[in-house]
Each structure stands twice: as C-alpha cells, then as structure tokens.
C-alpha cells in the first residue's frame, strides 16, 4: 500500500506535537484556499505587519476573530477597522484536528477555539523562531498547510536554537502542538516555491493556525 493512496501515518515529532501528512483531501484544500482568498481580500484583509524594532514581516497575515499584530491581540486593526469574525468552519476543523492528533476531541471544559491567523508566504517569506505566547489559553495550536511545501522547524520550549526537528509540511498537512510542546519555539526557515498542487492555482504557501485565545469580550 502506498502513502500516496492511503496517506501517511501520524508522526509524533515531540511529545504533544503531531504531524498528520495529507490530512485534508484535494477538495477540502481547494475549499480552504477559496475561503482564504475571501478573508485576505478584506475588509480588515491581509497585510505585512510592522515589527517593533523596524522593518516589516515578510509573511502577510490576516486575523479572524481576533487581530494579531506583534505582539498582542485586539478586536480592531490599528486604523479602527473591526477584525473579521471567526468562522464556524474553522472551529469545526480545529475540533476534528485535535481529535485526529490525540485520539479524542477537546473536552467539554476546553477553552473554545476563537481565533485564526492566515499566513501567506511568497517565495521569499520566512518566519523566525518564536513561541505562540500571546494566548492566555494553553489549548493546542492547530496548523494547516496549503500550497507550496515548507520547511517547518520545530524546536524546544527553552531556546530558539537546537535541538529542533525540520519537518516538510506539504499541502493538506495538519500539524498540532499542545501539552508539553505547546510553548515550543518554531519557525519556517524556507518554502519550496513551485511545489503547490497545480489544481489549487496558488503560487506560494498559505498556513492557517487556529488557536484558543483565552481572552474575553
Ligand atoms: O506557517 C507556519 O507553518 C507557522 C505559522 C506560525 O508559527 C504562526 O502563525 O505563529
Ligand atoms: Fe507560531
């Protein structure tokens, strides 16, 4: 039996960090790409955020449910435009993703998934090693990849440096990190331009991370 036909088995990259290759089928990928294009268009659409010490991020982003910009969440953009709502389709996807990764969906007491960041990487975009630490909740982060393959560097909770594992994330892959890996440093040192499935009509990489903010109001 080939992985191409049946998908690859889940891989535990670190305790609580699970890679599920090919989790989304082609139709689900195409549907999400279509939605991402709509979310990116705006209002409150996709943009490059300024960095506090100067320059702009190479990755373009749009927030849903909450606007994130280095390094905090808000309900409005700096110009006062309200953030777009968090779509039910992503709440459903996040619950199913947690179930697929850990064998059980989020329990009844879990903080609700209420924010997504949609990231777009052109051929030159990168994301430096960081922790997802602006959420108050410690529910797992659910990450979906669409379009070009990337190198996803998954490290440790103590430092931005080694030890880390480099994982190739392809279109349709799911990566979930929670539990002891929730605060692990991670980043995207490069993408592989031109590797997106042609049927998506996408030049670049889209990533959707769904999170529980733990924030009120
Ligand atoms: O693009 C990715 O796979 C990772 C994105 C990420 O780490 C983030 O949005 O915080
Ligand atoms: Fe992150």
From TrEMBL:
The protein's required cofactors: Fe(2+)
Protein name, as recorded: Alpha-ketoglutarate-dependent dioxygenase AlkB
Keyword Oxidoreductase in annotation: yes
Domain Fe2OG dioxygenase, chain residue ranges per copy: 112-214
Organism: Streptomonospora nanhaiensis
PROSITE patterns assigned: FE2OG_OXY
Keyword Heme: no
Keywords attached to this entry: Dioxygenase, Iron, Metal-binding, Oxidoreductase
């Amino acid at each position: 039996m080939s992985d191409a036909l049946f998908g690859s088995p889940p891989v535990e990259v670190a305790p609580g960090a699970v890679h599920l290759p090919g989790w989304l089928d082609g139709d689900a990928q195409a549907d999400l790409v279509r939605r991402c294009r709509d979310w990116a268009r705006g209002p409150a659409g996709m943009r490059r955020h300024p960095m506090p010490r100067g320059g702009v991020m190479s990755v373009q982003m749009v927030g849903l449910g909450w606007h994130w910009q280095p390094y905090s969440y808000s309900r409005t953009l700096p110009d006062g435009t309200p953030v777009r709502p968090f779509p039910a389709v992503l709440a459903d996807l996040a619950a199913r993703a947690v179930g697929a990764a850990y064998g059980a969906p989020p329990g009844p007491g879990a903080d609700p998934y209420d924010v997504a960041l949609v990231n777009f990487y052109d051929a030159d975009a990168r994301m430096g090693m960081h922790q997802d630490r602006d959420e108050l909740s410690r529910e797992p982060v659910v990450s979906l990849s669409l379009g070009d393959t990337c190198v996803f560097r998954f490290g440790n909770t103590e430092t931005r440096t080694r030890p880390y594992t480099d994982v190739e994330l392809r279109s349709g892959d799911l990566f979930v990190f929670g539990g002891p890996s929730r605060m692990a440093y991670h980043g995207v040192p490069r993408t592989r331009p031109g590797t997106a499935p042609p049927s998506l009509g996408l030049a670049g990489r889209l990533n959707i991370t769904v999170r529980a903010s733990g924030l009120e109001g």
